[in-house]
Amino acid sequence: MRDRHSADEILTAAIEVAFDDGLGQLTFGRVGKRLGIADRTVVYYFPTKDELVAAVLATVGERLMIMLAPVFTQPATDHRELAARAWAALRDPATAPIFALYLEASSLAAIGRQPYRTLAPALTDGWISWAAELLPGRRTQRRAEAAAAVAILDGLLMLRAIAGEDTAAAAARRLGL
Question: pLDDT tens digits for 113-133?
Answer without folding.
Answer: 989 999 999 889 988 999 999
